[in-house]
Amino acid sequence: MKRDVPGIAFVFIDPDGETSVEKSNLLQALSSGEKKALYILNIIFEVQARKEEKQETLFIVDDIADSFDYKNKYAIIQYLKEISEESIFYQIILTHNFDFFRTVESRKVVDYPNCLFSYKTENEVKLEKASGIKNPFINDWKQNLGDLKKLVASIPFVRNIIEYTKGEDDADYKKLTSLLHWKDDSESFSMESLKIIFENSLADVNFPTVHHTDKIIDKIFQEAESCLTASEGINFENKIVLSIAIRLKAERFMVNKINDPLFVLSITSNQTIELLKKYKDKNPSEKENLKILEEVNLMTPENIHLNSFMYEPILDMSDRHLRDLYKKVKNLS
Asked: Where do the structural domains in the chain lie, given as residue ranges?
């Protein structure tokens, strides 16, 4: 384990026997994950050599676990943990994968104060301290429902809780669905109704004092408008509010244009997709509107149907993209 690069022989084995394989030929046949595994072997050798020579080193690790299954991802994270425990080693770990990011923090490879999110504004790339790693609904939104953005953003989470505990046939589940898809009762849903559902579904919930006859749909669009002028940042709740408002406005537009109540009532799942298919059939020449509606279908489903275990799609999408799409949907004609 000095400075010489290790010599590695490659042998292919199958039931008929075995044969040596040249490295250049092997690399052409390996998958991206297998190539990355081979690359990591070389890294492990280099790390061990530097450890034995007590060579102070900064490692920059960039999405090292992509293309691996979870077992191997966890093995890599454990190895990064071992590196972090060496006083002569330092690490900057970069990733687009939020699950990897969250696991690196939970296993104390990196302490929470040293976890950062990056985001791009119109003029620069910024870093800010990470928030929401450990479930923003429990650790933030539930205690701050007086912030109407957080209240609106909590609707999908509460709907998930009802789905898991009572099932999709539950009346409250269906009511909350009317706030995520345009239904015949979407406009009549009051704050009082939402308060009852939240208090029936959550322990120790502090629902805000509001005019209980106010319509939730108005609050959703009101908060979406305020998202357009909010400061740029990670903005978990802003992205979810915008996504909900985008879908509701797009579906309301399609429902009105299709003008077929029986068809709309017959939709039991994938409502945005089904409405878009029907809209295309009836309005094939409206190319610009169809382009915008396709964008809605592409960008919003994962953002709305999120739960406490997976928020990567919402994190990976630019706040600016959602603002721009909301403006386009408002101007559909």
From this structure: 10-94, 136-330
